Amino acid sequence: MGRINQAFCCGPFARGGQLPMSELFALAADIGYRGVDLSGPYPIAEVVVEAPKHGLTVATMGGHKSLADGLNNPANHDRIEAELRENIAFAAEHGVRNLICFSGNRNGLDDYTGLRNCAAGLRRVVDLAEARGVNLVVELLNSKVNHKDYQCDRTLWGVVLCELVNSPRVGLLYDIYHMQIMEGDLIRNIRDHGRHFLHYHTAGNPGRNDLDEQQEIWYPAVMRAIADTGYEGFVGHEFSPKGEDKLAALRHAFEVCEV
Hints:
The protein is α/β, with parallel strands linked by helices and 259 residues long. Helix content is 42%, strand content 14%.
């Protein structure tokens, strides 16, 4: 087996929810997957029961609402704190490693103020996350194509946020597809800042599709760079397969990233 723990996001491979969860999990485990990423369209309460039956760890779940209206707005902090506290307790009870968090859109907010606001929001729950052993991972997303105006759209912004909070349980979800669009230089950023990356997502660019020869990211080299940092978490595949055989795409992604 390789040094990368691979996971899969359920949505792209569930055939619109028509493939029974138990069947998808069994097929993925047979390929060699070790984790389940975002659970939709399957209810997370069912996923945390079914996944361990197949030797799969639940790598992530949503931490709070919403992507566009997030931690950078202090008016959201009471709501987000309540949602995170509830989800930290759930994650700790069911062995979910990471709760995904979002900066929110800028809406005219400067980067410095956005950083301070996000840090203040995370500090409200960081003691609980540390006590319960659950990671809070702020997702890096592109604001150029998919998520216009999203604030946490560059590696350095996210790294500074992590350093402001200064907790081993607060890090980044480094989405390789999104950061290729925003800044490239993937391997250098992984080497320089990988200590802050607590989860990874993949997809081919452009198109957010298969990890094939028609997109520009050379995933074997990226996976080797991740492995060389000593990373022990999960890399989750979040791409949308182009062909009808979604499980073939899932197998191919595993083979590409098995280093």
